[in-house]
Design goal:
Blueprint (H helix, E strand, L loop, with lengths): L3 H26 L15 E4 L2 E4 L4 E7 L2 E6 L5 H10 L6 E3 L4 E4 L5 H39 L4 H34 L2
Antiparallel strand pairs: 1-2, 3-4, 4-6, 5-6
Length: 189
């Protein structure tokens, strides 16, 4: 039976690992894979009366069809700023401004771009696995210190280590699933 201190160490490791997986999931959403995805503008910023804001905070971003993004600014004077921000961010498509809305037609990905995106997704997955393994290592070191300095029993320490390993395996599997799903999405023409 795990003590409160052991449960605390295991929970902290689990939280770090889940945060890493959530970060990867959010990062993978920003990959442009040939389909219109409004979240691609979450990292594109514009100057809004002296404050730097992402496009979704100054405009409505919708997808009328699978290949088109429609940006409707809440203030018409933001049109030019949003259009310039999209061009400056080199997202791979050219915005067209009709005076009321900005349309961005998402071009299909080239084979070379698909391979680059897959490589990038796999590298991000590996980086996340390193973060997860580091969290495991830190938790195990903390458990060993707790056994040595805080009177945690050897059995409890071993049981907690096994629990940390189970959580690590689960999170590594989650990362593999996320990367595989993104790879499949990238390869889908």
């Amino acid at each position: 039976m795990l003590t409160e201190r052991a449960k605390e160490i295991v929970a902290l490791a689990d939280e770090k690992m889940q945060d890493a997986a959530a970060f990867l999931e959010d990062d993978l959403k920003n990959y442009r894979v040939g389909k219109a995805n409004p979240s691609i503008f979450n990292t594109v910023t514009v100057d809004y009366y002296g404050t730097v804001c992402p496009i979704p905070q100054v405009a409505s971003v919708t997808t009328p069809d699978a290949r088109t993004l429609l940006i409707t600014p809440w203030e018409r004077n933001m049109l030019a700023k949003i259009e310039k921000a999209i061009i400056d961010n080199n997202l791979g498509f050219t915005p067209s401004n009709n005076g009321e809305v900005i349309r961005c037609v998402v071009p299909p990905l080239t084979e070379e771009r698909r391979k680059d995106l897959i490589k990038k997704a796999k590298a991000a997955g590996e980086q996340t696995k390193i973060v997860i393994r580091n969290a495991r290592r830190d938790a195990i070191e903390t458990l060993k210190k707790a056994q040595k300095n805080e009177g945690l029993s050897e059995d409890t320490e071993k049981e907690a280590e096994e629990e940390v390993q189970k959580i690590t395996d689960k999170n590594i599997k989650t990362i593999d699933t996320l990367v595989a799903a993104k790879e499949k999405e990238i390869l889908t023409v």
